[in-house]
Design brief:
This protein is α/β, with parallel strands linked by helices. The chain is built from 7 helices and 7 strands; from the N terminus they run βαβααβαβαβαββα. Helix 3 crosses helix 4.
Length: 188
């Protein structure tokens, strides 16, 4: 039996009603549905990594165990799928804090792993600005970005009752992004 790829997935949001959580879970199910024998999904919840706001003074007192745990999860992955919520055109405070702490442990927090980036929102831009910020920044932190996908408004294009896209075009675009991500995973 082939070795399974370990894929870490999370929404870069601490909202319990996150549309980005729905999107990343939908993408993970699509990936696992096509490759059930070779993919193990490890879902992270940013609420499990809540810690003091990063500052150099707090860092001098020691790195929180939760930041170490988050980095360990990323390090154990063969690939990462992230869907970004956008707050005022940027990362959510919850994600930014975890990202800041993690980068102090290891600047290359993604450790040259394949990373698929996504975003959606209730608005028409679908998280374009936060996705662009991540696309620009993450390669400097060891992300091998394989693909990206975004759309908005969420409720106009995604049916939460059926957990599916209302338009074939968006479903096909997401599938193409997932295939590019899968093809970049290490051979198992």
């Amino acid at each position: 039996m082939p070795t399974r790829s370990n894929i870490v997935v999370f929404a870069a949001s601490n909202s319990t009603q996150s549309v980005n959580q729905r999107l990343v879970m939908h993408a993970a199910k699509m990936l696992q549905g096509d490759l059930a024998e070779s993919v193990k999904i490890d879902v992270l919840d940013l609420n499990d990594y809540e810690m003091p706001i990063y500052s150099p003074e707090r860092e001098a007192r020691g790195i929180p165990q939760l930041a170490l745990d988050f980095c360990e999860k990323l390090g154990a992955a063969d690939g990462v799928m992230i869907s970004f919520a956008e707050h005022n055109g940027s990362y959510t405070a919850a994600f930014k804090n975890i990202f800041d702490w993690s980068s102090r442990i290891k600047k290359q927090i993604f450790q040259d792993q394949p990373v698929m980036l996504m975003a959606t929102s209730i608005g028409p831009l679908g998280g374009q600005r936060v996705l662009a910020a991540a696309m620009g920044a993450f390669p400097s932190f060891g992300a091998k970005i394989t693909s990206n996908f975004n759309f908005g408004p969420f409720s106009e294009h995604f049916d939460i009752k059926t957990d599916s896209f209302k338009t074939a075009r968006l479903a096909a675009e997401l599938r193409e992004s997932i295939i590019a991500f899968h093809d970049a995973l290490p051979a198992t």
